[in-house]
Input
Amino acid sequence: EAQVTQNPRYLITVTGKKLTVTCSQNMNHEYMSWYRQDPGLGLRQIYYSMNVEVTDKGDVPEGYKVSRKEKRNFPLILESPSPNQTSLYFCASSPRTEIGGYTFGSGTRLTVV
Amino acid sequence: LAKTTQPISMDSYEGQEVNITCSHNNIATNDYITWYQQFPSQGPRFIIQGYKTKVTNEVASLFIPADRKSSTLSLPRVSLSDTAVYYCLVGGSSSGAGSYQLTFGKGTKLSVIP
Output
């Protein structure tokens, strides 16, 4: 089944403890992206990647890192999480010929205390 | 970066046609327009994508005027299960010339009433 898989689905962590949210797609998509969703603010893009080893900042990149060492994986790294990063996170991918025609993952609900 | 503006909410009765309009005044020449549906605590689901004129698929139609500064998602004969938030997204290009920093608006919360 074609899908974008995020892990974990739920995570509670403490301020300052490094964490990684994984994202993997099995559709051979070139384009991948991370979004966070907060009440009243909609979906805001954190980082995106056009292809392996090519990443760029979205609207809200502060406090986040990403890497794209393989085409299928696009992990989101929070080096020192803070409470304002408590949010619902979505990973998405699309083929280069349909950028914006995303397939989204199921989401990761992160709470930083 | 193309910014989008949509109504915050809309109500409709079951069986009616619903039209949701998105404004994107500074859309770039190579940008596409894409619409998504999102249910609570789920990832957004792709509905339809277009560049100009009209696009239709099995669930919706997308109307784009010649100036491309707005677009309208049309949902025929809505049912209770269509209650969701609908987002329009502007950007991307198959030619590689559009914007890849894809920004969603705040979405339109559609409530379908029995």
